[in-house]
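User: Quick one: structure for sequence A, then sequence B.

Assistant: Sequence A:
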Amino acid sequence: QDTPSTPQDETDFESFYLKQVTTEFADDLDKLRNASDFTEKSVPILIDALKVTAGMYSEGDKVKVMGKR
């Protein structure tokens, strides 16, 4: 079912997606955080980059993922 998302649905999916990504890529994220060029300014850039990837999923994919939680 490809029903349009409400703003709350989008927020719920983004939160779920970010949790999954940070769990799956925890080792890689630790490497980034420990890099010599990683600064406080890097954190919002990293978060924004991760959030952008959540937007690449179709409405149908989001519904499927959220329905299977």
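Sequence B:
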Amino acid sequence: MTPSNFEPPYIVLPTTQHTHTIIALHGRGSQGPEFADELFEQATSSGHSLQQAFSSTKWVFPSSQERYSTVFQEELDEWFDIYSLTDPATREELQIEGIRDSVESLRGIVSDEARIVGPERVVLMGLSQGCAIGLMTLLASEFKIAGFVGLNGWLPFRKQVGESTGKGALAEFFGSKLNVELPERTSSVRDTPIFLAHCVDDEIIDIELGRQARDALGSLGMSIVWKEEKEGGHLGMLNTSGLDTIATFLRDWGILDRQIC
């Protein structure tokens, strides 16, 4: 279920029997349909787009709200306001409202898709700010899902999340800081496999922020595969080499049945 103040997600239906769902989250300044075009524009080395390569997969592309940007002093399509991409911890209070609203919306979409195919067949992925809000959604989710794919992103409130290692500490952080109530867990979200990739020459989100996200999630005991691409820039994971890496991860971890190689 999507709250009324969010647009319904853009849906790309599977071309064969529906077995899995990937919920793909766009970056700042984009929208769901635009991200779908970017993701499917390039082909893997097999000559197939990800949509063709995983033909039994339903692709769900949610869109963020328009929010006022404190830095740019105008309305932007973004999951949450942020003062600095160099140091996301600067004026963190600006992020709270957007993270809360976006997490609530995205949790509903994850739950809807889990009811259709089962949580073990739902993948959450995101690029840039989509990775950031996707990680917060994962941590606030009700259950373990098939996996998370994060591309050239970071982890909001990294220090606080990384220190939330004790029993109930993560729920306390989400509740007291973000006003997000964590549901009673049916399975541990910390068992969800995570793949994080970042281009070393990313000109927008420094790779060090990706490394910090990896380390913070690792401190929670989460299973993470980390990959650094030497070049490609901020959108480098959407080129052929990056798509090959994503497809390999999905297959090797058994998240998706391979349809076309």
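The longest helix spans residues 96-117. The chain has a mean pLDDT of 92.

User: Thanks, that's what I needed.
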